[in-house]
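User: Fold this, then the next.

Assistant: Folding the first:
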Amino acid sequence: MDEIVTQKDFWDREADNFDSIYSHEKSRMSNFLDKIFRWDMYARYKYTLKNSQPISGKTFLDVGCGSGRYSLELARRNAKQVVGIDVSGNMIETCKRRSAEEGLSDRTLFVQADLLGYDLEHKVDVCIGIGLFDYVKDPLPVLKKMRESSEHRAIVSFPRAWTWRVPLRKSRLWLKGCPVYFYTKSKVDELLNQAGFKGYELAKIGQLYCVTAFPG
């Protein structure tokens, strides 16, 4: 519970700053640096949308939906329904506002919640958790519930251990009171197997592992 409170407080404060990575509402220099050093974040966005196909008519659960960049794009591409959950109330309010502005409210539902405490009425076709496990100390129960919630696949990402970005990111987030976690490939393999996935495809994209896992 303490971890959830910590994450809620952090993302309530950082909502606008984080979203600017995708909105590019920054200085020209900051946007240039994002393209150089955060290119893998944009690549995992493309990876997720590609591996979510077919999107039209399907249902999605976006765990740790943040400001809704993935959820809203899935809705724009004619998903039947997208449920986005996040522990940050500010993030959820941003999602609701943007969904209403774009006329997507009939296909989206945004809820302030933690996955382990959220009761999903029905399984979804695809469950995604992008940028989620960076901030989860014990990912196994979350992965298990994602598997249980998915009919066809789960798409997730993990930040890689032992890259040049690790000490910089750890220090930056530690100063802001936010723990962050990193993974080796063997740890990702272990977690996916323990969570009960019957198979998965793993891609190394820059300093990230992107995974499409199949529940069975």
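Now the next one, as you asked:
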Amino acid sequence: MVTRIPGVMPPNFSAVYALMFCAGVFFPTHLRWSIPFGVMIVTDLALNLYYQFAKGIDVFSPGIVIYLAANYFGYAGLVVLGRRFKPTSHFLGLLAGGLLGAVLFYLITNSVSWLLNPFHNLEYTRDLKGWIIALTRGVGGWPQTWEFFRNTLLGSGIFTALFAGAWKLTVAESPTEKGEEDHKGEPQSAAEPEEAKA
């Protein structure tokens, strides 16, 4: 996904959160997990190779692999949250669901980052203060984590609105479905009961 390429978008401003949430809402059962997680596995592998060889970061260390697994747990939570909604849900309800998913993902992944501390950040002490720092300020040399949170909310909100809006404008309003809805309220003709008897 283009939004995951380093430097293309601000940090954490990504379509990933919306993709996972909307997959839960709109995708059929047999594609709900395979498509979004297939995309994530391929892009994560490419990103990890980039950071390993271009940036010299040991992304295949056990702590980072466990942290990455926690991200996938968060992604699964977004899909499950999406299942609480229906494709026919109100647009604003879907948008609120996408934003709620972003908040939950942020809390889960930053809490795991604080707990596992894969980069051995001194700021992440094992107490309430360390956890609050992980959720708000983060570590030196990086943007503050509240900025990542802001970008997560913006990305999730914008892309959820785009995905849900596109669905409602194309699939939900397709001529076939619209025609079926138009006929739902029509009274049966006099011939129909006779045909049913034959």
